[in-house]
Amino acid sequence: MKVYSPRDENEASTIITEAAASGLKLAVGGANSKAALGRMVDAGARLSSIEMAGVTLYEPAELVIAAKSGTPVSELVRVLAERGQELPFEPMDYRPLLGSRGEPTIGAVVAMNISGPRRIMAGGARDSLIGVRAVNGRGEVVKSGGRVMKNVTGLDLVKLLAGSWGTLGFLTEVTFKVLPKTERMATLLWRGLDDRRAIEALSSALGSPFDITGAAHLPGADVQGARTLVRLEGFSVSIDYRLGEVRRLLKSAGAPDILEGRGAEILWQSVRDATILPDDRDRAVWRLSTAPSKGPDVAAQISRSLDAQWFYDWGGGLLWIATKPEGDAGAGIIRAATREFGGHAMLVRAPDGIRAAVDVFEPQSEAVMALTRGIKKAFDPAGILNPGRMYAGV
């Protein structure tokens, strides 16, 4: 497959304009580390942002950074760390789960609205995103937002393009609000709680005024047994106080261990990247969002019919579930659970045949699909940008 790697926005505009005129379908991406996510795209060529890299604006005093879309996430992390700052939303690295290579790019993080455990406090990528530049399916350069975060009336292109999976436009530059890097991180760890009791404890912690930045439950699927995690970040003196208060708040759950240092960082990285799941490449992996109070119900219903392994993030509101890939990899049973208890499910990893046969994203109602098709038509009339990546025919 031919790969187009424009060096700037003008080249990208020319490529897309010519593709639209000829009807050439383009698989839009960056370094291709997440090509196995979403539905398979039937395209004649790839359009990659890999040559469009570099920080274009950084104002540490204003907590603002902008970069071209092909900039490696690791480069932004490095630049920010040099000034004691960080991306607030702790983006997940999908490579361990997908077995892929390449350096994840910041444009892909925005296109897929990727985040990590800190989303419960800081939101996802779109919540820190304050500006975008992109080329739509007509070859037109569009710009929205800027250096400050503000509310506007009308269509918010910044939020619309974040999470659109490259189906509406080819991102060329993104701008974020960032935060000072935390001085200290400490994790409270309870052992032996069942799912329901663990989620009750996490909900109590998240409902407290103590600024929880991570809340996960890892059921006892390995030799370590069930572990329930509450993370606190901030100034050291504040951490000491909040540790004591959260322990008192959750005293009925028992006496927790306190984890700090590199071991705790590695544990949260494994939660972020879903490598807590068993390292079994043959299994399909699902990502489910639901109300935290319903998380144990969803997992219980699924496990009654499937050989499934799972863990909870976001206080129980996010479930990562590994299933056997036979048949539909459990799609029917998982969709039935989300319909009954509320929520939605995305198939993250599965053989190509299953990805082609089942809905990768939660099916939409006809009214919502009509709106989705209308937005796609407005941005990409010829349907050349990542066609079918999210929904068949869109």
From TrEMBL:
<dbReference type="InterPro" id="IPR016171">
    <property type="entry name" value="Vanillyl_alc_oxidase_C-sub2"/>
</dbReference>
<dbReference type="InterPro" id="IPR016164">
    <property type="entry name" value="FAD-linked_Oxase-like_C"/>
</dbReference>
<dbReference type="Pfam" id="PF02913">
    <property type="entry name" value="FAD-oxidase_C"/>
</dbReference>
<keyword id="KW-0560">Oxidoreductase</keyword>
<dbReference type="InterPro" id="IPR004113">
    <property type="entry name" value="FAD-bd_oxidored_4_C"/>
</dbReference>
<dbReference type="GO" id="GO:0071949">
    <property type="term" value="F:FAD binding"/>
</dbReference>
<keyword id="KW-0274">FAD</keyword>
<dbReference type="InterPro" id="IPR016169">
    <property type="entry name" value="FAD-bd_PCMH_sub2"/>
</dbReference>
<dbReference type="GO" id="GO:0016491">
    <property type="term" value="F:oxidoreductase activity"/>
</dbReference>
<protein>
    <submittedName>
        <fullName>FAD-binding protein</fullName>
    </submittedName>
</protein>
<keyword id="KW-0285">Flavoprotein</keyword>
<dbReference type="InterPro" id="IPR016166">
    <property type="entry name" value="FAD-bd_PCMH"/>
</dbReference>
<dbReference type="InterPro" id="IPR006094">
    <property type="entry name" value="Oxid_FAD_bind_N"/>
</dbReference>
<dbReference type="Pfam" id="PF01565">
    <property type="entry name" value="FAD_binding_4"/>
</dbReference>
<feature type="domain" description="FAD-binding PCMH-type">
    <location>
        <begin position="1"/>
        <end position="181"/>
    </location>
</feature>
<dbReference type="InterPro" id="IPR036318">
    <property type="entry name" value="FAD-bd_PCMH-like_sf"/>
</dbReference>
